[in-house]
């Protein structure tokens, strides 16, 4: 084995939070995390994680219990995740936009015994309990103290309180192995009910190594983390690897474009990850011309596909920034492939090549290895891979082909090993017995200057089986006709791929991670 493989082998007997401990030992007084007006040194953050872990165990939780986190980004949110890892508990990140039956489902499916939530979300939590849901939840904590100062136990208050809490002996007795669960990472549920991907300490540590290598992460990057921490990319591709490196991370509650522009300048940030749905408005922000963003050298995008034309505009506007395309899935922590800055010029539409601890193959529908540039499903294996879906053995079995995870993504692989995503297999349109990849049609429509966003879907049709349909969002003040869209597409791709119908809407449905919810578009129109 080489040095990196030795590191992962050793990690199998090490809990994930030890990465923070080592940074605190190396640089105890260096700034680790900044959130709003608070700044935590590595020594302070290490002590805060200890305090919260002790209190969790003192509250009666035991190894393997699930702890749900329901809120916006905060220093308390980050501390809770690390404290769960230290205490041998399983962290369950919950999308803060969920409510009602959606929230109830995740709490019940995970069997969470404790829920830590933002005070602003109390009414949503109360509604679930009042309806008789989430019976497994025995305790509710606040992530941050409420404005009035009264309420449930608070993660932040505990993190800042040096007074001892019952549970110190229990924490000292905790034994966590690298193969133990540390998080139930729920899939976004764009095609079905969310499933909890069982992530282990060792799997995520392997992912941190892959991310650090593929994205050139460095302790001097001064990264901004603005995307939601409940999503695996922000937490596991950026926040945690950067803390392991000893960087100073500026954490934002949410991806506010104005605040991002301001902080890149004031903090001299070098690294910034955003979903394409945030990069686009940032590129058009009116203050860009007057702000000094020269410190920014690394720009990562992912969570959804970046339109090629939008990427070209960004690269032209910011020639000194190196762009990284991050592609992956929750089940691998999530980073699977990366297109590096020097690779963008030749292959701007590519998702890159597999990261260090991910092995990939492409199979046709018949199960044969796909030839060069032949479409097929990409499958993955390696130490980053999840253990399976929580309490869902049938779905777990369906997701695997032996040791290989079936991604559900249709891709091609070229002679250089570069992956290009064609589409989700379930989104491919069967029109008149011929398959159409929606992304190809979308890329053609994005060439139109008036178009802000577009989604191409297949709708039931007596003649065509599925009719290619374009749902378009126009830029403010722009005008465009369906006939003009169809004529433009017809000039660029085969006639059978031209939309049979074009619909103009104000916005497209997306989840909080920026992923387009095509199933909602189809359901509304079927």
Automatic annotation (TrEMBL):
Superkingdom classification of source: Bacteria
SUPFAM superfamilies on file: Acetyl-CoA synthetase-like
AMP-dependent synthetase/ligase domain location: 21-390
Keywords of the record: Ligase
Residue intervals of the AMP-binding enzyme C-terminal domain: 440-515
MF term (GO), any: acid-thiol ligase activity
The family this protein is said to belong to: Belongs to the ATP-dependent AMP-binding enzyme family.
Name used for this protein in its record: Acyl-CoA synthetase
Lineage: Bacteria, Bacillati, Actinomycetota, Actinomycetes, Micrococcales
């Amino acid at each position: 084995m080489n040095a990196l493989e030795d590191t992962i082998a050793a990690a199998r007997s090490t809990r994930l939070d030890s990465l923070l401990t080592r940074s605190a030992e190396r640089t105890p007084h260096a700034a680790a995390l900044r959130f709003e007006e608070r700044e935590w040194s590595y020594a302070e953050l290490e002590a805060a994680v200890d305090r919260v872990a002790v209190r969790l165990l003192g509250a009666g939780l035991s190894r393997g219990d699930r702890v749900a986190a329901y809120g916006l980004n905060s220093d308390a949110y980050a501390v809770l995740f690390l404290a769960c890892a230290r205490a041998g508990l399983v962290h369950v990140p919950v999308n803060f936009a969920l409510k009602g039956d959606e929230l109830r489902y995740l709490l019940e499916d995970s069997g969470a015994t404790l829920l830590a939530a933002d005070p602003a979300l109390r009414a949503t939590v109360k509604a679930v309990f009042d309806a008789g849901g989430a019976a497994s939840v025995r305790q509710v904590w606040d992530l941050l103290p409420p404005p009035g100062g009264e309420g449930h136990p608070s993660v932040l208050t505990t993190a800042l309180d040096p007074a001892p809490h019952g549970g110190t002996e229990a924490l000292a007795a905790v034994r966590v192995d690298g193969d133990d669960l540390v998080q139930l990472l729920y899939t976004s549920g764009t095609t079905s009910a969310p499933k909890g991907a069982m992530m282990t300490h060792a799997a995520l540590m392997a992912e941190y190594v892959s991310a650090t290598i593929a994205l050139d992460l460095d302790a001097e990057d001064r990264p901004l983390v603005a995307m939601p921490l409940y999503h695996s990319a922000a937490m596991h591709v950026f926040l945690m690897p950067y803390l392991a490196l000893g960087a100073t991370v500026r954490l934002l509650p949410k991806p506010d474009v104005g605040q991002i522009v301001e902080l890149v300048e004031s903090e001299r940030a070098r690294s910034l990850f955003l979903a394409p749905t945030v990069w686009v408005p940032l590129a058009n922000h009116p203050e860009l011309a007057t702000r000094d963003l020269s410190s920014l050298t690394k720009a990562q995008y992912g969570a959804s596909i970046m339109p090629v034309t939008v990427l070209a505009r960004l690269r032209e506007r910011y020639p000194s920034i190196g762009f990284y395309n991050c592609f992956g899935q929750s089940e691998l922590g999530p980073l699977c492939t990366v297109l590096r800055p020097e690779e963008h010029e030749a292959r701007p539409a590519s998702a890159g090549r597999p990261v260090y601890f991910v092995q990939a193959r492409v199979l046709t529908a018949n199960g044969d290895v796909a030839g060069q540039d032949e479409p097929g499903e990409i499958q993955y294996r390696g130490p980053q891979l999840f253990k399976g879906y929580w309490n869902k053995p049938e779905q777990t079995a369906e997701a695997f082909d032996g040791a290989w995870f079936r991604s559900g993504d249709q891709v091609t692989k070229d002679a250089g090993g570069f992956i290009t995503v064609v589409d989700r297999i379930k989104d491919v349109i069967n029109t008149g017995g011929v398959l159409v990849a929606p992304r190809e049609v979308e890329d053609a429509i994005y060439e139109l200057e008036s178009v802000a966003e577009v989604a191409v879907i297949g709708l039931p049709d007596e003649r065509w089986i599925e009719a290619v349909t374009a749902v378009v969002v126009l830029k403010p003040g722009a005008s465009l006709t369906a006939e003009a869209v169809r004529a433009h597409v017809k000039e660029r791709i085969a006639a059978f791929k031209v939309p049979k119908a074009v619909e103009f809407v104000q916005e497209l449905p997306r989840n909080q991670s920026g992923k387009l919810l095509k199933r909602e578009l189809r359901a509304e129109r079927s």
